[in-house]
Write a structure and sequence with these properties.
It is a single chain. A hairpin with a 2-residue loop joins β10 and β11. 23% of the residues lie in helices and 34% in strands. It contains six helices and 14 strands. The strands form three sheets. Strands 1, 2, 3, 12, 13 and 14 form a six-stranded mixed sheet that branches. It is α/β, with parallel strands linked by helices and 209 residues long. α2 packs across α3. The longest helix has 12 residues.
Length: 209
């Protein structure tokens, strides 16, 4: 698979990059025709810091108390908190960066010691990839339960423009991927054409079949 990888640079900052591999992939929610490799942004200090600055420039006038990190975006979230605290409306603020726990039935929960970081707070939700919006929807339900106020949604890659009336600001969108498509599993044309699934993908990466 890796020999088919193409590198895509951010339109605003060429130092921020993702890799894309065309093929037939199954996620938890859909089938897609690209695997989007975001490992460098999620794990590399230099690129995560560049990506945080690019994303953070969108939120200089948005009051943020807490950043909730989904799908391995903690490093990006920490740099984003640092960037926001250096200027704008959040200058000097001590922004919390937390990650929800998944319980036995795959619901997002927060323990008593972290709930105070959400209750009545202005929350920025950070996610690695949003192809259908279902993960964002689940996170929004969780926030409502803990009385957090969602004020912003950020993503490394997103194929959706908004969720619950809030715009999704992404470093990369489906417009950066030529002919990007995602389908419900039972409506996938690649399956109907008899094309094998190349790999199972989730926020941790991929497993070839």
């Amino acid at each position: 698979m890796e020999d088919r990888m193409q590198t895509i640079q951010s339109r605003k900052n060429k130092k921020v990059q993702i890799g894309v591999i065309p093929g037939h992939y199954a996620t938890n929610h859909s089938h897609v025709n690209y695997y989007v490799a975001m490992t460098a942004i999620k794990t590399g200090l230099k690129m995560a810091k560049e990506a945080a600055a690019e994303l953070g420039s969108t939120y200089t006038n948005t009051h943020v108390d807490t950043i909730i990190c989904l799908e391995g975006t903690e490093i990006l979230g920490a740099f984003l908190a640092e960037y926001l605290s250096q200027g704008g409306i959040n200058a000097g603020a001590d922004i919390s960066v937390i990650t929800p726990e998944l319980n036995a039935v795959n619901q997002m929960i927060f323990r008593d010691n972290t709930q105070k970081k959400i209750w009545g707070k202005q929350v920025l939700l950070l996610i690695s990839s949003a192809s259908t919006g279902k993960s964002i929807g689940r996170a929004i339900d969780c926030l409502q339960y803990y009385n957090g106020k969602l004020v912003a949604i950020g993503a490394i890659f997103s194929a959706i423009k908004e969720s619950e009336g809030i715009e999704v600001h992404a470093l990369f969108t489906d417009e950066d991927l030529p002919h990007y498509e995602n389908y419900l599993a039972n409506e996938c044309p690649m399956c109907k054409q008899g094309k094998k699934v190349d790999a199972l993908v989730n926020s941790f990466g991929y497993s070839k079949l």
